[in-house]
Amino acid sequence: MVVSILIPFLPVVITLSVLNILEMHAVRPFSYDQVHNHASPFPWNTILFVPSGQIRWAYLNNCYIPIATAIPIFVFFGLTKDAVNNYRQLSLCLGLGRLFPSLLQEYDPDKGFSSGASTLGSAQLRTVAR
Length: 130
Fold this sequence. Notes:
Elements lengths: L1 H22 L8 H6 L19 H4 L4 H14 L2 H13 L26 H10 L1
Helix pairs in contact: 1-4
Pfam family, one: STE3
Keywords: G-protein coupled receptor, Membrane, Pheromone response, Receptor, Transducer, Transmembrane, Transmembrane helix
Family: Belongs to the G-protein coupled receptor 4 family.
């Protein structure tokens, strides 16, 4: 289970790490005075407006990476039998059972779709006998 989550997540983390290392400038010592009191090229409290055409695609769309990495986690943990039944119970509490009558039946993928009949032939025999 952990491997199935790490497979899509690990390449994203490695890619972001490599991009950050490539964009990193030379390490310089920190100086509070130079950061806050030095007005060249801009004062420390200046807000710069940059058009989106000047920002690289990876940095512009960086906000979607957590969403993309959360999708496999939801698929593996949010679509289990217990989770689907919790969603079903919540939907019933909201009154959606009238719109979707199949919500009234508990979700159990291990249980077959037959209604008590063990084979297709016995189900056909039952309908003929009626």
